[in-house]
Amino acid sequence: MVLLLVTVLMYSIVQTLNIKNEAIENQHYFPNLRGIDLDNSLTSTHELEKNTSYNVLIRFNTDCYLCEFQLNDLIQLKRYFHNTNTNIFLISTEPLHQLRAYNNLKKIHELPNLHVLRVDENSGLRFFGGNGVPHTLIYGPSDTLIYEYKGLVDVEIMLGYLEI
């Protein structure tokens, strides 16, 4: 019985490590995450990219207070994102009706070049590797990862990486 328990525990640890390693490999280049936008249209990050130089992916949840702080900072600094070559993607696995309600409450659609994308649990897990929220990834002009931060990131630091 103990041997079976140890075997199951070891299998679980190996699976978790495999998911995290796969996520690290997947994050080197700007991903083509497929999901549903707030208009209920099936789309992807590549379809929404609009030939910009920089792409920011933020894994977020509507009930995450750190995500809310980060989003409030983005909204307060939205003047920097007008006429810019940066897309911001809020990626979530939450139900679409919850994301829409949050959008209506926070008016996040007013932030230029901001896209909310609901991805399925499996895609979110495979790309972000089970990391918590918020998780910010910034991709540069060659679609390669130039900055990653797990947790709340100062938006002014983010602006420095975006050359705004």
Could you characterize what this model shows?
It is a single chain. The mean pLDDT is about 80. A seven-stranded mixed β-sheet has the order 2-1-5-4-3-6-7, with helices on both faces. Helix 1 packs across helix 5. The chain is globular, with a radius of gyration of 17 Å. It is built from six helices and seven strands; from the N terminus they run αββαβαβαβαββα. Helices cover about 40% and strands about 20% of the residues.
Question: Which descriptors apply to this entry?
Answer:
6 helices, seven-stranded mixed β-sheet, 164 residues
Summarize the topology.
Elements: H1 2-26, E1 34-37, E2 42-44, H2 45-48, E3 54-59, H3 65-76, E4 86-92, H4 96-106, E5 114-118, H5 121-128, E6 135-139, E7 145-150, H6 155-162
Parallel strand pairs: 3-4, 4-5
Antiparallel strand pairs: 1-2, 1-5, 3-6, 6-7
- The first-to-last residue Cα distance is 60 Å
Structural class: alpha/beta
Overall pLDDT metric: 80
Proportion of strand residues: 15-25%
- Written as H for each helix and E for each strand, in order along the chain, the element string is HEEHEHEHEHEEH
- Per DSSP, the total helix count is 6
Largest sheet: 7 strands, mixed
Report a brief summary of the structure.
This protein is α/β, with parallel strands linked by helices. It has helices at residues 2-26, 45-48, 65-76, 96-106, 121-128, 155-162, and strands at 34-37, 42-44, 54-59, 86-92, 114-118, 135-139, 145-150.
